[in-house]
Known about the structure:
Strand 1 and strand 2 form a beta hairpin. Helix 5 crosses helix 6. The protein is globular. About 2% of the residues have low confidence. Helices cover 39% and strands 20% of the residues. The chain starts with a helix and ends in a 14-residue tail after the last strand. It is α/β, with parallel strands linked by helices.
Amino acid sequence: AAPARAERAGLVDTLRSAGCVFAEEEAGLLLAAATRPAELAGMVASRAAGTPLEHLLGWVAFRDRRIAVDPGVFVPRRRTEFLVEQAIAQFSPAIAGSGAHHPPVVVDLCCGCGAVGIAIADALGAAQLHAVDIDAHAVSNAARNLATAGCAGHAHLGDLYEPLPATLRGRIDILVANAPYVPTNEIALMPPEARLYEPPVALDGGPDGLAVLRRVVAGASDWLAPAGRLLLETSARQAPDLLATAATHGLAAEAAHATDLDATVVIASRPTDGQDTRVTLPA
């Protein structure tokens, strides 16, 4: 017991010295994952050098699941659970009374490992899930996760809406996107876990961070069901611009914010009769 405690304490010190904020928790996870001392030593050295913990473990904890995440694939952040919560909350008002088909159609753009779409499908109980990413490695990762989760649906390789089946036009009930929204000149300021180990295409949102999200908004009306909802993760400072973009494309939009997670989500839909497209910011 004493040697084990000493080993754990040594790991914690090593990880803390490397800048790992949750060094004690990470040491426990690495100890549990390693099958032999040499493997543990290698994992600790890699983590201290900046490799994301999730890539070393092979999974990320997201809501109530462990989602497999491959090296080189974007690791979903805890703040993105707020995007999922908002999508689930929007489902009932979006679909109730609309005569929508069942199961509902959920599309997860810029899906990465597929965690967001899987979490939404889990909560809805049944859904036709389509996950899309421009990165082939991410699509392969997401496809395996969809199969493991037992989700009815498919992972598609391509640019945003381009690879989706044409039969989904006008039929998507929940359309979510955790697209890249970091401004290009801020990538260098990100932690090494992100800027060195995650694909730039999953991080770089262009000069103001909204290049991809604007394209998502621009195409949404063609794909949303009449009562469907579009939900986009963004930052608090970018939300006003994204809300204005939604209005430009004829969508009614509002922003929701979770202070504890520092998470912001823009929620948009086709306006109902008599509803204008003025945007609403959180109080």
